[in-house]
Every structure is written in C-alpha cells, then in structure tokens.
Amino acid sequence: MPPSLRPLGIPPSPRQRTRLAGSSARWGLLDLMGVATAAVLLVVWLAPSAVAQAADPTLGEVMDRRRRVLGGLRRGLARWLRTVGGVR
User: Fold this and answer.
1) DSSP of the chain
2) What is the model's pLDDT at position 76?
3) 16, 24, 27, 40: which has the fewest C-beta neighbours closer than 10 Å?
4) Domain tally for the chain?
5) How far is Cα 68 from Cα 86, in angstroms, rounded to an integer?
C-alpha cells in the first residue's frame, strides 16, 4: 500500500521497508540462478551443432544454404507485406 493511502499508526510491511530507491534494478539470487541455468542450457544445446559443422562445407552445401536463407527471407518479406496490406 502506498504511504499516502496507509492509515496512520500502521507501520509498513517488511517488504516495503527493505525496498529502497533503485532496488528494483538489483537482481535477486533466484534471478541470477535462472539466468545462469538458461545460459548453461543454451551452451549445451548449441554445442553439438557447432561440433557437427566443424568440417569445411562443400560448394554445393554453401549454395543450398544460400538458397534456403534467401528463400526464407523472401517468404518472410512476402508475409510481412501481406500483413501490412491486410491492415490497410
């Protein structure tokens, strides 16, 4: 409850007492553990694909990848243009 609405004589709750200016920007221990866990999972998830691509790609693989990336960009642009056109 904000101090302006709290009746006189009722002390603030312990949570309100410990909250200082700028304390919302501080990270709690659980937040840091969650970020660390997410980082470890991301590294573990991406590590096999990085090892699998250790070999040099052939020209055919490079051209296939280029075709897929450009096709995806074209499809994404087309979908975005259809969305914008539908809104108008």
Assistant:
1) --TTTSPTTPPPPHHHHH--TTGGGSPPHHHHHHHHHHHHHHHHHHHHHHHHT-SPPPHHHHHHHHHHHHHHHHHHHHHHHHHHHHH-
2) 94
3) 24
4) 1
5) 27
In a domain, 70, yes or no: yes
Q: What is the pLDDT of residue 85?
A: 85
Structural tokens at position 85: 């056109």
Q: Tell me the C-alpha distance between 17 and 6, whole Å.
A: 14
- Whether 7 is covered by a domain: the verdict is no
The tens digit of pLDDT for each residue in 22-63 reads 555 455 777 778 888 888 888 888 777 766 666 778 999 999
8 assigned to some structural domain: no
In a domain, 62, yes or no: yes
- Tell me the whole-structure pTM to 2 decimals: 0.38
